[in-house]
Structure formats: structure tokens, C-alpha cells
User: What shape does this take?
Amino acid sequence: MLRYVIKRLFSGLLTVYFIATVTFLAMHFVPGDPITGGKARSPEIRKNLEQKYGLDKPVSVQYVIYIKNMLKGDFGISYTQQNRSVNDIIRAHFPVSATLGIFAILICTSVGIVMGSLAGVYRGRAIDKWGTFAVLIGISVPSFVFAVFGQYLITEINKFTGSTFLPVGGWGTFKHMVLPAIVLELSTLAFLTRLMRSSLLEVVNQDYIRTAKAKGLPQLRIFFSHELRNAILPVITFLGPAIAAITTGGFVVEYVFAIPGLGQYFVQAVQQLDYTVIMGLTVFYGAFLVFMVILVDIIYGLIDPRISLSKA
Amino acid sequence: MSRLLEVKNLTVEFDTYGGIVKAVRGVSFGVDKSKTLAIVGESGCGKSVTVQSIMGLIPMPPGRITGGSALMDGKEILGLPLSEANKVRGKRIGMIFQDPMTSLNPTMTVGNQIAETLRYHDGLSFKEGRKRAISILDQVQIPEAKARVDQYPFQFSGGMRQRVMIAMAIACNPELLIADEPTTALDVTVQSQILTLLNELRKERNMSIILITHDLGVVARMADEVAVMYAGQIVESGTVDQIFYQSAHPYTMGLKEAMPDRDESKTHKLKPIDGSPPDLFHPPVGCGYYARCPNARKVCEKTLPPLFDVETSEMPTSPGSHQSRCFFHHKDAAKLTTLPRDLYTRHTGVNA
Assistant: This one.
């Protein structure tokens, strides 16, 4: 078990290293650089700046310096934001994205599993048909549409009641989190519901469910200890990437709701070719994703007895 | 004579996109206490559906029990509400299935799967349930039951899993064990062990068995009584000796002619039964076997033969004990051409 975890962590580190390398190269192949434009007004200034940031050195040397610093945990200083280190940016804004993301994940897993189960148990009935319809909408409508629509709806409610039922933007209290979290997880929720439903439908047709019925067990017991337990396994596999995607991928939602999350910095950095910020955030996101996938695999191994972590 | 289970005129249909399938068309049989009844027939003849509808295991819809009754000790067990049905299945009737690889819950220890029945039906505590599970695993001859009880099905071989299934089915001391092709998915040596085990358990516990199989060798070895099914009906029934030594219905004869014999001195040629079973979307009006029967007459096509008592000179029979659904057993009918002499034998097939 411990050996498995160490092995996975090591290969995870390797993955992150590759992510860093590929991003670094791709970034430097993109025409332009962070000091083109506003800053480098004359060739002399440009030269000075290049010297200051080390951009005059060959890419290979820059790469080695960068990797060395990265291993020390130092992602460097932003090119475009005065005196702000990438570590600072992550420290200040990732907790915001993470809190929102975790809240969203909690909503979508609990609601998704319950809704998927209901749709599966009452397949073909009204609840299943409406559920399928809702799932279709949830998957196909992009989140910014839901975001704007949600804001509009809440504004109308606030106007109607004359008090602030929920704020439509900003960050700070739990109430601020509710609407963006719901919007953020809608598509994942829809997907989870569908996954849970189909997984349950597959399980209820298995021979061992017939065996459980032949044993004369009551329906609720069959559902909880035989059907749900087995149907939930594929859902757990999906959770790792889903957590990473929701926690890190909320740029649009963060933008619409004016939430000071990490997403906007990432997009800004790419637009301005802010090398250090791009690199730092990519490596950070990559590491986060890899870690989540490993975590889910370990949890999966604990839940599904057929998967042996010690032999892998 | 009071029988443990008496099934009368059971009729089961399924709604499908292609129409209504009449899977079981008026089947009657009975099982005596601590005896084995074998129901034998080819794939799709309705033998599994018959026992599954007794257990309330056919999905409804699309399935539908349209008629008949199943009396256990004189009490109706068909069409009970779920809570009542659950007092019968698992408790009074245990059931094992064809494929032990898929019939066990993969994410639950075998001990819990056995104990779960005991905890629910007999109100055992968690600890007692586990203890009983170990002793039952011991009884179905699983070595090192104490260590095995906490293992998962994937850690067992096919034969061992079938033993676990049996352990589960007999946990609550049922009066009747229904075994739906229990050895079909197993290799021959394991088959033989499982059959021996079933027989031992039956004797020890005074349990009746309904054995579903398509293997006449298994029938010859296990059964006290036999019902031969074809196209959703029983075409011949009798004691195992009557079925083997005085095979009466042309279908039973056909089966025997198609069966290899391990006795090399017997040199009859294997003769397959031509054609295929009738379409149960539109079951024939007359005899189900009409289209394939070498002895078919005009009357067989339009009129369904009732079950006639088979009368033979060699073995005197009581009325109703040996029956055949064939007009040739009408008392005024001509004698049916018989099988070659050496096919009237009981020990056929690899499992005998």
C-alpha cells in the first residue's frame, strides 16, 4: 500500500515535470514576449529589461534556471504585476477558488448521486423523464448562460422581496458562494446524475441482484447494500478529474460573479505572455490534478476489494 | 400423499417488442419431502422461467403470471405481496443459480452475503451471523472456512463460488432448494463434486430439491422424479426409472438418441433432433413437438394432446405417476415404435 502510494507520487512528479517542460517550450515558441508592448519603448530599455529578467540568455539556460528555482518552490516574480511573486498570487487567490470548488463538488456529488439513484430506481416514470430532460440542459448549456440567468433571477427575487435574498456578485460570506457554486457545478451535476443512473441500471440487472432477491431481503436493504455500493464505483472514478476541473476551471464563473479567484490571473497571464505566472499556475494546476487523480485511485482501492493496491 | 410443493397449471407470459411470448403454458408438477425433482429440457423451453416465477424473480413487467397456483404445504405462494413473499424465499425456499461467477455480489465478503440472510430472516446478531456463516461454509466443504469467511468472491474459484452460493441458499434451513442449472458453468470434475454435495445436504437436512438441467446425465444421477419440458409444457413426467427405462414421449426418446454414451460396447449412432423448437410468440395449437416428431400424425397438428398415463407391461404403474403428452399413449392408439434396446438405460452421460 505505502509502496504503491510512493510509486504513484513519484510518477505524478514526473508527470508534473513533463507538464512544466512542455509548457515552458510552448510558451517560448509563441511569438512576442512579456516586455513587448507598453514596457519596451526603445531598444535600450528593452535590452535593460531583458537583462533584468534574464531573457537575453538562450532558452535552454533559462529553462535550467527555471526548473532549479521551481524545485526550490520558487515560481518567480510576475512580469506584469509590480513586485508580485507567483507564489503570492497562488497563496492569495487559490483558497478562494478552492473554497468555491469544494462547495460546488459537495453539492454536485450529493445531489447527483441522489438524483441519479432516483432516476434509476424509478426508470421510465415521470421523475426519470424530467431528470433526463434536466440533465440534457445541464450538459448542453454553457455555464455563463446559467450564470447570467441566475443573476437575473436572483435580482428579480431581491427586487420583489425588497431585501437581499442572495448577493449576485462579490465575495466574502457564505451567501456569496451559493449562486456561483450552483452555476459552477451544474454541468458536472448533470453528468454525474447521468453516470449514476446508467451505472445503477446496469447493476440492477446483474445476477447478484437476483440472488439478493432470492434471499428474500427487503428492497431497501437490497438497494443500499447491493445496488448502491456497486453502482457508485464508476462515479468515484470520475470524481478526481471533476474535482480538479471544478476547482480550477471556474474562470468564467469567477469573472461573471466578480470573485477574486485564481482563474482570472491565469487568463490575464496568457494574454500578456506573463511567463512566470503562466508557468507557475500551469504547474500548480497540473500538480493539483495529478494529486487528485492519485487520491481518488487510492480511495477507489479502499472501496473496491477487487482492486489491490499492494500488488500494483 | 401430501407434497411439499404442488404447482398447478402455471402460465407465464412476457411482453416484448415482438409481441407476447408464452414462455410457460400450463405446467403442473409436485415435489415430495426430501426428494429431488429434475426438470429437464433444452434452452428456452421455459424451465428457468417456471422456477423463477415460483420464487417471484421474473421481472414484472415485462413478465406476467397469467394463471395457475403454487401451493407450499397447502398455502399459495404465487402472487404474494413482497413482504409475504420475502418470508418464503430465502427462508423456506433457497435458490442457486447457473453462473456462480456473476451471482455473488463482488464487493461484499462471502461471510456477509451468507450472514445477511440469517440476520434478516432469523434475527441473528452480527457476531452470531458470522459464526453461523463459518459453520455453513464448513458444511459445504470449503477448507479453512474461518479465513475464507472474510474474503471476497473474486478470491474464490468457480466451484468454490458455487459452494458459497449453496451455503447462502441453505443458510436458513429451507425445506426446498431450487437449483437452476447449478453445474452448467463448471468443469466436469467440479460438477461431480457439487452434485455429490447437493445430494449429501439433501439427505442430512431432509430437504427437497428442484433441479433444473439440460443434462440427462445429471438427471440420471440426481433425480427421484423427472419432468421433461418442451416448448413451455411438460411433455413427460415420471420417476427417474420410468423416464429412462420406459421413455414414452417421442421428445424424450429423441433426447436419448442424441446423447453420447460412455459405454463403448454400445454402438448406436448419435441422432440429432432435426429442426428447432416452435416460436413461442405463436405457440402451436397442437402438440409442441409436432414439427420435429418422426411419429407425427395429422391429429397432432390441430389438437393438443393431454397427459396420458403411460401403461407398460414391464413395470406396473399407479395412475398419474408416469404421464406422457402424446396421442400414442391414448389407450386405443397404436403402439409407438420403440428405441433400440440398449438406449433404455439410465446411466448415460459423463456425470452418471
Observations:
- The interface with chain A takes residues 55-57, 82-83, 85-91, 94-95, 97, 99, 102-109, 116-117, 120-121, 152, 154, 165, 168-169 of chain B (CB under 8 Å).
- The longest helix of chain B spans residues 188-205.
- The longest strand of chain B covers residues 19-31.
- Residues 1-92+223-352 of chain B form a domain with the Rossmann fold fold (CATH 3.40.50.300).
